[in-house]
UniProtKB/TrEMBL annotation:
GO terms for cellular component: bacterial-type flagellum basal body, MS ring; membrane. PANTHER family: FLAGELLAR M-RING PROTEIN. Residues 29-201 form the Flagellar M-ring N-terminal domain. The chain crosses the membrane at residues 6-25. Its main location: membrane. Gene3D superfamilies: 3.30.300.30. Pfam families: YscJ_FliF (PF01514). GO terms for biological process: bacterial-type flagellum-dependent cell motility. This is Flagellar M-ring N-terminal domain-containing protein. InterPro entries: AMP-bd_C_sf, FlgMring_FliF, FliF_N_dom, YscJ/FliF.
Length: 208
């Protein structure tokens, strides 16, 4: 009988321990709130590194990054001060760790185009309904063995927030924004596509 009582007590102790662990986990989880969702992997790594350096507890729940609820607002401001999230693109910071030694003119031009693409993408991301953006540029250049010159073109790929859409004037604004940053690029040569494959601007010269 003594052994049976000890066994029952042991089971009760284990059950109580699991109960307390469950309650603590539940209470802790309920105090966590959404900081960001659907981050690019590079952004998530950078932000979690910032949180770790600040000794801020965090949880990753699928595509959601959770932090203590009372700190959500201050952490978003702190991350913004660090330039995060970037949306997975690099702008002029691409030159921060770049060395000019041994770098050819061709590579410098490639880096400049990549930096322009990144800066334009970050600017487009500032539009409220745009979640992320990618910009691809083709600079104007003269064809070999001919006087003809290839016109500059640009394509913009947008990921919208939820079911949000862009108004016609916003589409035109993006075209003019990109064109104004690139020499000899006409706004009508800027094509825009959303993440669902919908063509928002064709990028043909005939477009107004």
């Amino acid at each position: 009988m003594g052994t049976a009582r000890l066994a029952v007590m042991g089971v009760m102790i284990v059950a109580m321990a699991f109960f307390f662990i469950f309650m603590i986990t539940r209470l802790t989880g309920s105090n966590m709130d959404l900081l960001y969702a659907d981050l690019e992997p590079s952004d998530q790594n950078a932000i979690t590194a910032q949180l770790t350096s600040r000794n801020i507890p965090f949880e990753i729940d699928g595509n959601r990054l959770l932090v203590p609820a009372p700190q959500v607002g201050s952490l978003r401001m702190a991350m913004a001060a660090e330039g995060l999230p970037l949306g997975g693109v690099a702008g002029y910071e691409i030159f921060d760790n770049a060395s000019s030694l041994g770098t050819t003119n061709f590579m410098q031009n490639v880096q400049l185009v990549r930096a322009l693409e990144g800066e334009l993408a970050k600017t487009i991301r500032s539009i409220e309904v745009v979640k992320s953006a990618r910009v691809h540029l083709v600079m104007s250049r003269r064809q070999l063995f001919t006087r003809d010159k290839q016109s500059a073109t640009a394509s913009v790929i947008l990921k919208m927030r939820g079911a949000a859409t862009l108004a016609g004037e916003q589409i035109a604004a993006i075209q003019h924004l990109v064109a104004s940053a690139i020499p000899e690029l006409d706004p009508s040569r800027v094509s825009i596509v959303d993440n669902k494959g919908k063509l928002l601007a064709t990028g043909n010269e005939k477009d107004s």
